[in-house]
Amino acid sequence: MKLEGEQVLCRFYLTNVDRVGPQPTYEAIVETARHERLAGATVLKGHMGFSLGGRILTEQAWTVSNALPVIVEVVDSEARIARLLKAVAPRVHRGMVTLERAHVLYYRGIAAPGAPVSMDAPSDVALHAPQEVAPMQIPEEGVLLRIFIGESDVDSRTGRPLYEALVHRAREMHLAGATVLRGPMGFGKHSRLHTSKLLELSRDLPIVIEIVDAENKIQSFLPVVDESVQEGLVTMEKVRVLKYTAKAPHDA
What is the DSSP letter of 96? Predict the structure, then answer.
C-alpha cells in the first residue's frame, strides 16, 4: 500500500513513570491510537532530559525505576490526530504535545481481511489543534530545536559530556523541557560510522537533543549552542504546542 501527501506528526512528551491508573501513560496512548485505528505509533525512550517542572531526568545503571523522558510519535491525518487527542485528554494529566506537518512519501502495511489500513486525504487548510480538548491549553506557536552531536563530545567549559551540559544550560535558562535521544547507529560530517556493539566499552553514538519552546526563548538559547557545539548539526522547525495543565488524580 502506498499513500502520499501531507499529514500531521503528533509528539507526546512524557516520562516513563507517568501513569493512567496502573498503566504507563505512553502505553495508554499507543493502545488508544491502535483502538482508534491510526496508522501507527512509535515510543522513543530518552537517555537524559528535564521535565516541564525543571526536574533533571537521567538514566542510572543501578535502578530500573528512575524517571526518564519518553516521546510518543504518531503520524496520521489531521482529523484522526484530533480524534486521538480527544480520546486521551481525559486521562493524561502531565506533559506536552506538539503538532507539525509531515509529508508522507509512502506508507506500506499488510491489512487484515476486511480492515484496510488507510489515511484520510491530505488537508489543504492550515494546521489546527482542537482548542476544546480539556485539559489542554489553547495551542501556541512554538519551535522544535534539534541538536545532533556525538556521545563522546565534551563541553570545553565544564568537562561534562556536551549533551549533559546543554541540558543543564537549557534548564538554567528556564526552557520548557529537553529530551536526549541516543541512536544505535549513524555517521556524521566526516563519514565515520558509529554503531553500538555488545562488547564495545568505548562508544561515540549519535545523540539528538530535542527542545521545544516559544521562538524567542529558543532564539535566546542559540548563542549557547553556537558556542558549545564544535561539530554537529542544528535544526529548527515550527510546531504547534499544547500543554496538559490539569492536576493529576491522587491515584494516577
Answer: E
* Domains in the chain: ranges and CATH: 5-139 (3.30.70.120), 141-238 (3.30.70.120)
**Strands laid side by side in the 140-150 sheet:** 41-45, 69-76, 5-15, 96-104, 233-243, 140-150, 206-213, 178-182, 48-50, 56-58
Query: Letter for the amino acid at 170?
Result: A
**Phi then psi for 224, rounded to 5 degrees?**
-65, -45
135: preceding bond cis by omega (within 30 degrees):
yes
pLDDT digits (tens, 9 = 90+) for 212-248: 999 999 999 999 999 999 989 999 999 999 876 545 4
- CA–CA dist 236, 79 (Å, integer): 26
Q: Which residue type is seen at 219?
A: Q
Q: Phi first, then psi: what are they for 14, rounded to 5°? A: -135, -170
